[in-house]
Amino acid sequence: MNAQELMTGNVLTVSPNQELAEAMQLMVDHGFRHVPIIEGNSVKSLLTALGAINAIISNGVNALKEPVVKYGSDKFLTASPSDDVMTIIRKALDSNVDSVLVLRNNELMGIITERDVVNKMPEQVFAGYRVHEIANRSPVRISEDETLASAMEAMVKYGIRHLLVTDRDQLLGVITVKDVMKHVIRYYRLRGQVDLSTTVSRLMSHNPVTIDSAASLVEAVRLMRRNNIGSLPIVEAGRLMGIITEHDVVRSIVR
Length: 255
Known about the structure:
Blueprint: H1 3-6, H2 20-30, E1 34-39, E2 42-48, H3 49-59, E3 77-79, H4 85-95, E4 99-104, E5 107-113, H5 114-120, H6 131-134, E6 141-142, H7 148-158, E7 162-167, E8 170-176, H8 177-191, H9 217-227, E9 231-236, E10 239-245, H10 246-253
Parallel strand pairs: 3-4, 6-7
Antiparallel strand pairs: 1-2, 4-5, 7-8, 9-10
Helix pairs in contact: 2-8, 3-7, 5-10
């Protein structure tokens, strides 16, 4: 399988001088977590959802009015359409990035994300594992009374896109970068500011899809595909036991 077969084409892009708010609006409207910043015909940098959140944590609401290029990262990986997918996945994991831009003669053709790997790789590459073998047994947690600002800071600090909302060992919900960006942009468009004091309980998903640790990895992948989600909390007898994310699934392929 090569990069062209796995990638998402028709990538949404922004120019360097567009406002960060415009880029985040694109992410929210289309469900993307990565937006390449294009100057001329070349990729200048890459804005990620966590990068956008970090901008707001660091610089407040004024960041939303600033040029998006200020918050893009120039540490992005590229591949050609004919490159082998497994080589690309290993390179991304070694570089600790969750996406690879596919270029032909420096022109952007598409992007490969962890979601693409989970959704498009043949199921047999995930066979042979159980959820408990690749799960994170000590996930980052947050209480439902914590503020949105605290949730954003935790996401940036740990480099994660999903936070489990708990009361001791009971799972109450999940808050994701998508939830954060939707709230930020909606509030900003309505009031010209951002309320980061909103409690996590108001933004989280209250009934997240969960999985048992004994389930097969293939079952987990099917659940993610069916529900278009990037994580599955692991719950047994009402107790939270961990989480499995797209990143965990991708790592399993190269074990």
